[in-house]
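User: Round two. Same drill as before: sequence, then structure, for each protein.

Assistant: Same drill it is. First protein:
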Amino acid sequence: MLLRRNKKFHLRVLVAVYISLCLAISAPLLPVSATTLEQHKEAAEARKLLPIESNQIENWPPGPAIGAAAAILIEANTGVILYAKNIHEPQFPASTTKIMTCLLAIENSNLNDIVTFSSTAVNSISWDSSKIGIKAGQSLTMEQALYASMVHSANDVTNGIAEFVAGDLASFAEMMTRRAEELGAQNTNFMNSHGLFDEEHYSTAYDLAKIAIAYFRNEMLAKIGNTVRYNIMPSDNQPEEIFMRNRHRLINGEIPVDYKIIGGKTGFVNRSRQTLVTAAEKDGMRLVCVILRQESPDQFYDTALLFDYGFSNFQIVNVAANEKRYTIENASFFQTGNDIFGDSSPLLALNPDDYLVMPKSTDFRSLVADITYRTNIPSAIAEIIYTYNGAYLGTATIDFASDNRSTYEFDQNMPVAAPEPAVIEEDNVVFINVRQAFYFIVVIAALVIISVIIRAAIKNYHFNRRRKRYRKKPVRKSRRDRFKGYYL
């Protein structure tokens, strides 16, 4: 009985000592953590004073001041940058790295491929990082692996993807950097597939936006990146059921918005702070927003603020429907409103599907257009690059004959922003009349032939007259000469 009491007493003493030690250890740490968090918040407030490059454009809609160290808002289909803040400054991307990982995976594998995890894949990451707890020797389909990477941000799974695609982790990181360069990301270097901190693992807001544009063009990847919940059911190669939930607040509905979210990816390591990549769509515009180095939960609110700014202040404008300043002038066998053997067909035309993204406060006629004949588009003979006060707004191509109804010929040296541009009526479209051209050519040919015949006849006539004039007259013999032989 006494022994039991002593055991209870000793157990209480041990518990008390343990609690005391925990309090002693944690007591000095609490104020330090609070101070560190407060410092991060203060740093974020200070970053609101950093210059916003897009606000320096004359008459550009002013963008909001946000606490992110770097941010970009870009229209995915045209590449028009609506908002720019330190977009080329290298930052640590954290788990937004997985956008590149999944893009490479779907480009180099099939969804039903089996990814078997090695010991290196599951044990080379820190124990406290995000993972699903897959074990060496277990397997997932590539589709399951993609969902685990984007929805749960599983670092062990991205390592398995890397080994499956490239053979080893280092080779996959090299593939990531090369593919990023192909997409136009020139200031990016990847050292791993997951985004855990490495001094040499960095990217920029602009580069991540370029990578995200390519990612969201793939319908399957967009679907995966916009998934709120996903479960992996037990199988022979993986015996446990795994539940996953997306922590992106614009995707899971914690922050309601009035536009369509296409998808996104969160990220965090202590050195990067909060990072976020998101795509949204409204009124025909698909915008991609990248936030780097922000404090939680402001990365979500900054993203929502930038999307509101973009959809409220910018619009898409069809070029062929609005460009009326220059057209082919009527001449010779060109005739307005006539058909080719009864059917209309223009010679050159602006691509009817090309559009710009421009501020709603701006008039189309105030844009500047530069013509270039160096184009890689097979159907185009030239491209028109539109700008507004130096800011790129998009391009339109001039194509060969098609069913378009807007036909143009542009002069490279012609000023686009003329004070009083010549406006052409929409129905005044220029066509080549082949029948009339054929008749014209036949008439000219006939006139030439007749002219040659007449000239030959005249020349022959003059020649015959000359010949008669100089012909020798026969000499008549005298009577004496005729009878001369009789006197011999």
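Second protein:
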Amino acid sequence: MNRPTRRHFLEQSMLATAATMALQSQYAVQSRADDDKSPKVGPNDTILVAVVGAGGRGQSHIGGFAGQPGTEVTHICDCDERAGESSCDVAAEKQNGRRPVWVKDVRRLLEDNSIDAVSIATPNHWHSLGAIWAVQAGKDVYVEKPVSHNVLEGRRLVQVARKHNRIVQTGTQSRSNPGMREAMAFVHSGGIGDVKVARGLCYKPRGSIGPKGNYELPAGVDYDLWSGPAPILPLTRKRFHYDWHWQWAYGNGDLGNQGIHQMDLCRWALNEKQLCDRTFSLGGRLSYEDAGETANTQLVLHEFGSKQLVFEVRGLPTENYKGVTVGIIVEGSEGYLVMTTYDTGTVFDREGNPVKQFKGGGDQYHYKNFQDAVRKRDHKILNADVEEGHLSSALCHLANISLRLGTPVDSLDVPGKLKDIQGPGNLIECWERTTEHLKTNKVESYSMQVGPRLSLDPISETFPKNDLANEMLTRNYRAGFQIPIESAV
């Protein structure tokens, strides 16, 4: 892999660490130099929005702002001309014929002073850079999950948002759903007793993306712009527009795709406001060989003192666990909470009897929350402020760092690697269930990549005395697409 140099990491990390420690003691740093860039959006004014990224999530963003009370989509930016122009047509239908302008290059888009807010739905490797540039241009930002492709750039985004006093919301919409908010309030009030473990499950079938090859780019795509901060690499996957999720240069696997939602909910349930003390992961891409690189089978453990966050990714067909395929299980001394969607769930007592239910949600709550914060100029009323997005995204990245630093271990020898990892998460039991799942899928002779159990300083967000792991907190950025140094102060 193309890793940053030690000198590059240390320069970046020292700046980030100093700013992070300041943020720990003063959460909101007021802007001194950028008051003149504050959008003049009054209580009754329409917020003019540019949507960056016209793919699947981009269509959701268009639906969240186009034709809705209080907002209008005036621009759509995408380096794929066909997707961009088509999305302008979609928005026009929702806005009684008021058609947005398509812009290919986000840098040109951000020069337009008429735009109040930018909604980012690009591939992961563009999330932080696009959001930072937008904030520096005086825009408020709604950025999709995960907010970052690596840990350091996510922290940089938090810092620049605070410096410039911009509103930056992340796309973990569960945080705005009434059912989820009520469930979390119940847990935090002691409704299920003392909580020591939260489990996230991403049991989402993902088939092969096809053989690794040398494929032609789709017509109309500016690949230089699409690649942005990532290196210019040959296209080795058949499907260009979605399967980047499974290649490390652009995506973060299902842990950072679907799993970021459940990772965020688990951290919320544990009521943790900073990163973990330790992280560990094992996994592999099993059952098929294809152009994908990320794990389709993965176990993760994050340790917060005596509390544990356990995460399971299964991309092969599987049965549910306690009624959950994609969701969370929060275990307390007096019962447990099961959330099976973004807004519905049930509390059970210790005998497994249902005692309380929660329900209610929809994406409209999240977009409305963003609007309210933009109008009131107060990031503290955001349900999914960028700080929350950074922390939960970083947990996904930390687990993948452990995984990628791991070594192949025969499946029969994995239990021996887990015997010293104790705690309420019961990782060995998770492994036993995983092996049974793999047998059901006729995967019986295999090795797993078993990572190191890494210690982390949650204040500086670095690995003490571990240069190799620290290098993976960031990446080498292509010339012209670097994370700005100014955002670290």
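The first helix runs from residue 6 to 25.

User: Perfect.
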